[in-house]
Known about the structure:
Blueprint: E1 26-28, E2 31-33, H1 35-50, H2 55-68, H3 72-80, H4 88-100, E3 114-120, E4 123-128, E5 131-137, E6 144-151, H5 158-172, E7 182-188, E8 192-198, H6 205-210, H7 226-237, H8 266-278, H9 291-303
Antiparallel strand pairs: 1-2, 3-4, 5-6, 6-8, 7-8
Helix pairs in contact: 1-2, 1-8, 2-8, 5-7, 8-9
Amino acid sequence: MGSVPALGLEQLRCDGCLKPADGRLSKHDDDWLCRKCVAVLWTAKVLLDKGITEEDTIIPTLVFAKVAGGSHAWEALSLTGHLGGETEGLELVGIMHEATGWRPPSLDDDYAGWELVEVSDSLPIVRVLPAVAKAEPHPGTQVLKQVRIQILSKNVKQERIARIYEQVLAEQGAQWKENSEGVFSYNYRGYLGLTVAVGIGSLNPLTVESLSVNPLQWPAFHFPPPVLVGRFYKSLLGSLRPRKGQPKAGFEYALDNYGKTHDKGADRIVTAFVAWHVGEGPGARVPPKSRPRVARFLNKHLLEKCGLLQLPENSWSSSDAV
């Protein structure tokens, strides 16, 4: 690996993605690559070498490298191998937001189902869960105020929603057997968000401090039961098989098919992602004019090194694996 050559700013362009560089180019087999291209290539090689085949790990790990690769926080995570915050998912989202200059993440606007699997060969390997439930305390206290449930995939069953909700209640010491009043709300932001709370107002730190026992033991602070939360989710999801002639209804038609198994193969998914990363154009497909260059890049930096079948560089066929 070499350092960036002494070129003018107008010449500092990555040989991979062809985007203007920030002065941090490194030499790889006679090509000058930016931090993101280096991160994506390294991620692709590690995923293939480790034989990871799960889609819920392959794609998020590549996305994480593409968005945050080369940033200070991404490199720090690669070295330390652990996160410091209580909400791991939002911390991973925060690393991506920081790399792109976005505002800090929150449960109001961001999906918290990201999870750090491990750091292997200095690479953060991450997973995105199809659904997640998070506890939210009353401000300034440790007393549970509400539970945020986020669902990314239409394949999530109501039993799973009830189970992860019940797990949060158990971890927080909350009960539901004598519940007589509750609050449900929902929203959609690319994922379905459910908020479940007791039917009372907020508690302030002074009130909590003055109480001799944990207020979650009192019936007034009992949360809606898990079975009811599962049924509420199912009603929002809608019918998976609507009757003929009836209009589509429910969030099932807006949610992703995330988590469904397929037979595309890990090598195809990884190679296609790298092709999309270095391909010119904003769409999901590599433009025809870019395909010979992309094929040469893949052959040189990924396929040959990983012992995979190389692509023809003077043509592009729909039968190609990528």
